[in-house]
Amino acid sequence: MIRTDMPIRLHNSLSRTLEELRPLVPGKVTMYHCGPTVYSSPHIGNFRSFLFADVLRRFVEDQGYQVVQVMNVTDVGHLTQDDIESGEDKMEAASKKTGKTAWQIAKQYEDEFHDCQQKLHVRLPHHMPRATDFIAQMGSIIDDLLQKGVAYQQNGNVYFEIAKFPGYGKLSGKVLDELEDGARIAVNDEKKDPRDFALWKTDSKHQMQWDAPFRGGARGFPGWHIECSAMSMHYLGPQIDIHTGGEDNMFPHHECEIAQTEAHTGKQFVGIWMHARHLLVDNTKMSKSLGNFFTVADILAKGYTGLELRYGLIRVQYRQALNFTLKGLDEARAAISRVQSARQRLVRFAQGLERAGSEDVVAAVAKANEQFTAAMSEDLNVSEALAAVFDFVGVCNKTEVSVAGAKLALAAFARFEDVLGCFGDEPKADATGDAPAELLALLEQRKAAKKAKDWALADSLRDQIAAAGWKIVDAATGARLEKL
Fold first, then answer.
1. Quick check: 328 and 312 in contact, CB under 8 A?
2. How far apart are CA 465 and CA 484, in angstroms?
3. CA 336, 312, 470 angle in degrees (round to 5)?
4. Chain-wide mean pLDDT for the chain?
5. pLDDT given for residue 439 in this prediction
6. Quick one: 67 exposed, middle or buried, by C-beta within 10 A (0-12, 13-18, 19+)?
7. Higher pLDDT, 478 or 294
8. Of 126, 272, 289, 303, whose CA is between 20 and 30 Å from 161?
9. Strands, E, within 392-438: which ranges?
10. CA-CA distance, 432 to 450, in Å (whole number)?
11. Angstrom distance (rounded) from CA 481 to CA 444
């Protein structure tokens, strides 16, 4: 059931205010997320935005809505301001550097992106279309914009004429005199206005080319912005409830999406625009020259898990600055361990492996769920939601719960995991069997040492096990191992 007593409020970048989520179709939420441009390995800054979108989808579903989620894969490449002088897009640049074709580059890094999604426990979008599969749909929009007179052709290139769309700039807040060129192409004299952006570009040197999918056009390739409009409308229709991306997408990409889509449909394109802040690393913008640039693979190679990295990237509300550090990942590891230890204790109570108490946790469970929901409903305040989780951990750790209470508490933890996705599956009652064989051998040696009352040896063996990341728990049913 959808909660009506606690509405979801989200910050709309367009209105710059918190707005209640009111989907176009009651009970159903459509959302589109700007996905990866697959010319290099995904880095942790990319995944702050992608994980924010994942948590948003999870919480909206948690509140009873049916969600249809689309995230695109940009496999054509696009220019940044730094590339404008050379006129070369990132896919082409990667192709020249590696000797692989642009198509091979796109496939390689798309596969790597999907692998990272799995390792960071992302709930896969319902649709992940590639831009190169939607050339025909882009052509239909371009053709319509040309017929309406809001786009024009010059030497085979097609540009959107921003002077014909008075609302241009309403998302980013920039006035026309301040706007920079937002095209995929180099600044040139064939535009009516240097700020007009490309819908279609001809370039004989470009590897990825198609016959023009619109009337009277020349062979070429699409502009960056037109891709998302085509894919969004194909799956979700002319209007959607939520559109997300990183703050760098706001201008020019999302500004141009609004212009071309609304000029094409005559309707408001998006109900709520949401943008995640950039990620800082050691209080500085990520840069390869500074040595603080990390891909997802870099972090995993340092021995951290996908859950730990996910926790580190979602722990701060998406509109707040997040400073990423390796120390923060160590803290994430400890936090996850604390939650899982509490859950394991409850599992043992629920399964009768430890003597349960009689204390009632109904009120504590209700309070934890309410605080968690309140935090997430207020613009996905993950920090406050995590505070509610750890308050509940404290209650569970000091309470001798009943069997029924343990099951109720475990259901609450399962819900928190379902929304945040950063704690992992419910732990086994006894994780000893998951420990490496050499630690199991040390555990047996310790049992023998204790039986022989060789306490010094027993302590030494305990310390060796702890140094390997496990702890010994002595219980009435015998000694077992738990992951630290």
1. yes
2. 10
3. 30
4. 89
5. 78
6. buried
7. 294
8. 272
9. none
10. 18
11. 11
Q: Which two tokens stand for residue 179?
A: 């706007």
- Domain 9-276 is in which class? alpha beta
Tell me the per-residue pLDDT of 152-211, one tens digit each, with 9 for 90 and over.
999 999 999 999 999 999 999 875 554 444 444 445 678 998 889 999 999 877 888 999
Helix axes 382-397 and 403-420, enclosed angle (nearest 10): 160
Residue 273 tokens read as: 């625009």
Q: Strands 151-154 and 157-160: what pairing?
A: antiparallel
**Where are the chain's structural domains?**
9-276, 325-420, 432-483
The three-class DSSP label of residue 466 is helix
Helix (H/G/I), strand (E/B), else coil: 452 = coil
Q: Provide the residue type at 469 as one letter.
A: G
pLDDT band at 80 (very low <50, low <70, confident <90, very high): very low
State how far the Cα of 414 lies from the Cα of 17, in Å rounded to an integer. Answer: 32
Q: C-alpha 146: how far from its chain's center?
A: 36
Fold of 325-420: Four Helix Bundle (Hemerythrin (Met), subunit A) (1.20.120)
Residues 38 and 110: beta-carbon distance below 8 Å:
yes
The pair of structure tokens assigned to 303 is 């021995």
pLDDT tens by residue, 91-111:
677 777 888 888 898 999 999
- Judge whether residue 308 has pLDDT over 90: yes
Q: Of 429, 364, 359, 341, which Cα lies nearest the Cα of 401?
A: 359
- Cα–Cα distance for residue pair 326/124, rounded to 1 Å: 27
Mean pLDDT of the region 223-228: 92
Q: Under a CB-based contact definition with an 8 Å cutoff, are residues 424 and 307 in contact? A: yes
Q: Establish how many alpha carbons lie within 13 A of residue 253's alpha carbon, considering only the half-sphere containing its beta carbon.
A: 23
3-state helix, strand and coil shares in percent for the chain, rounded to the nearest 5 = 45, 15, 35
Token pair in block for residue 267: 């309707």
- Rounded alpha-carbon distances, angstroms, from residue 445 to 71, 124, 333, 458, 472: 53, 46, 29, 8, 13
In sequence order, what are the residues at sequence separation of 6 or more whose Cβ sits closer than 8 angstroms to the Cβ of residue 121?
306, 307, 310, 421, 422
